[in-house]
Write a structure and sequence with these properties.
About 40% of the residues lie in helices and about 20% in strands. By secondary structure, the chain is of the alpha+beta class. It folds into three domains: about 5-315, no CATH class; about 320-430, no CATH class; about 440-495, Arc Repressor Mutant, subunit A (Orthogonal Bundle), CATH 1.10.10. The strands form three sheets. A nine-stranded mixed sheet has the order 2-5-6-9-1-10-11-12-13. A three-stranded antiparallel sheet has the order 4-3-14, with no helix packed on it. The chain has a two-stranded antiparallel ribbon with strand order 7-8. The mean pLDDT is about 95. Bound molecules: adenosine-5'-diphosphate, magnesium ion and zinc ion.
């Protein structure tokens, strides 16, 4: 495969992103079924979401409200009147034989949102539309090596997800970023996540599929100038992490460039992303437009939000992520880099809550970005899913600030909290982790160390202060790390100088 640099030398990439967001409503889009993730398969279904004859859909008002709020946050116009349509096709995970979706009448359209890149540069991404639809069920192909249908012995289908409300956000073709296209794709999805999280409309967990991204990529030869038409695109489906979005776009740029340079042409098709090998493989061809026989859904009333309602929703939008970030950075005294790292680690809310519980911003940042990020990585979980709360982190820092535990003991306290042994206070008590601050006990330990290491003690007496490190180490060892090293040093020097 040719290098990215070589690909970019010959071609200008154009991207387009389609993001599906599963809304966090308590019930499904058109029925009252629950939407809990990970429930027993087919336990959250009813005649409506199973598409049984005679069942009728009823629209979920909370889902419509979320869709409008998403549209507003993306600077879109909101339709005064729009409908759902039936998108007809057969697939085993779609029991109704059609998907209820918006087609040519989306609830929100013509927006734009400003994405800030890692280097601080801002890129404006134009939004084509954000429309409502319902999710499909989930197929599980069993018996093969890949989990795909080819080579499987049988398939299972779980309809719990069928009918969960989705909003699909579609960008216009993004032309400006050129060589930065992969980075912009990633930054845009990260930006959307932050925005959706602030709106509180979804838990936006890419690994659980509540945020899914399809990445469209095409190339234009540099020799063709800026007025040439766009090239043929491919659509890489369901890229399920931020890192993968960037990698998939980068790979697709190289693959298409190599193909075009060899005199070939790009096929209009969907492609699958393979996380392990970092390549895409062909999916379904889109050369022949599928005929979905769209028509307006006759069983649902049109959606006609009143201007008053839309105005009210606009006025009650949360602070935009960019402004919020700037405000918090100023409030906390964070540098641009510290803020970027905090956001990048997915720790902004956690640091904010920890500060609200009384920790200093710098100590909150340190805990979440260093020790806790390391543990989350080791466990393979999201930072927010570690079994420790911001309240507990603040409490732990309180113990450090009060001199009751040192840094090393604090990490042991954290071990206990993560192991479910209770609050930091509780762990300190149960594990006996408090530092020895009683000078009597400390002095006894110091004297013992001096007696055990007379040669070292002699050096310190002769003025070689640096040698006192060995004595301090011996005291700390005796007290199993449960002492304030600075205080021990003071006592050693008091005794010997
Ligand atoms: P589909 O139904 O085929 O997925 P959509 O209109 O939903 O089509 O989405 C197509 C996406 O691809 C949009 O984000 C659009 O901006 C983008 N796109 C369209 N043409 C190109 C192109 N030539 N190169 C890159 N992206 C494109
Ligand atoms: Mg699409
Ligand atoms: Zn149902």
């Amino acid at each position: 495969m040719i290098s990215y640099v070589e690909a970019i030398e010959h071609f200008e990439p154009v991207i387009g992103l389609e993001v599906h967001v599963e809304l966090g409503t308590a019930s499904k889009m058109f029925c009252g079924c629950a939407t809990t993730f990970g429930a027993e398969p087919n336990s959250q279904v009813c005649p409506t979401c199973l598409g049984l004859p005679g069942s009728l859909p009823v629209m979920n008002g909370a889902a419509v409200e979320s869709a409008i709020r998403i549209g507003l946050a993306l600077g879109c116009d909101i339709a005064g009147w729009c409908r759902f349509a039936r998108k007809n096709y057969f697939y085993p995970d779609m029991p109704k034989n059609f998907q209820t979706s918006q087609y040519d009448e989306p609830i929100a359209f013509e927006g734009a949102t400003d994405v800030v890149l890692a280097d601080g540069e801002t890129v404006r991404i134009e939004i084509e539309r954000a429309h409502m639809e319902e999710d499909t069920g989930k197929s599980l192909h069993v018996g093969g090596a890949t989990g795909r249908i080819h080579g499987a012995s049988h398939s299972l289908v779980d309809y719990n997800r069928a009918g969960i409300p989705l909003v699909e956000i579609v960008t216009k073709p993004v032309i400006g970023p050129d060589a930065q296209a992969p980075e912009v794709a990633r930054a845009y999805v990260a930006h959307l996540r932050e925005l959706l999280l602030a709106l509180g409309v979804s838990d936006v967990r890419m690994e659980q599929g509540s945020l899914r991204c399809d990445a469209n990529v095409s190339l234009r030869p540099r020799s063709g100038g800026p007025d040439q038409p766009l090239g043929t695109r491919t659509e890489t489906k369901n890229v399920n992490s931020l890192r993968s979005v960037e990698r998939a776009v980068r790979h697709e740029i190289c693959r298409q460039a190599e193909l075009l340079l060899a005199g070939g042409s790009v096929t209009l098709e969907t492609r699958h992303w393979h996380e392990d090998t970092g390549v895409t493989t062909p999916g379904r061809s889109k050369e022949q437009a599928e005929d979905y026989r769209y028509f307006p859904e006759p069983d649902l009333v049109p959606v006609a939000p009143s201007p008053q309602w839309v105005d009210h929703l606009r006025q009650t939008l949360p602070e935009p992520p960019g402004e919020r970030r700037a405000r918090l950075a100023a409030q906390w005294g964070f540098s641009e880099l510290e803020m970027r790292d905090t956001v990048g680690a997915g720790a902004l809310e956690l640091v904010e809550s920890t500060v609200a519980c009384g920790a200093s911003p710098q100590s909150a940042r340190k805990w979440w970005l260093a020790e806790l990020s390391r543990r989350a990585r080791a466990e393979g979980v999201e930072l927010a899913d570690l079994p420790v709360s911001p309240q507990q982190v603040a409490e732990l820092q309180g113990l450090v600030d009060g001199g009751r535990v040192n840094d090393q003991l604090a990490r042991q306290v954290l071990d206990g909290v993560l192991a479910g042994e209770g609050s930091p206070e509780q762990v300190v008590t149960d594990r006996g982790l408090e530092v020895v601050s009683d000078d009597g006990a400390l002095t006894a330990a110091v004297d013992q160390a001096i007696a055990d290491h007379p040669d070292v003690a002699a050096k310190v007496r002769d003025g070689k202060i640096a040698a006192s490190g060995a004595l301090i180490g011996a005291v700390m060892k005796q007290l199993r790390g449960q002492a304030d090293a600075a205080r021990v040093r003071e006592l050693v020097l008091q005794r010997l100088t």
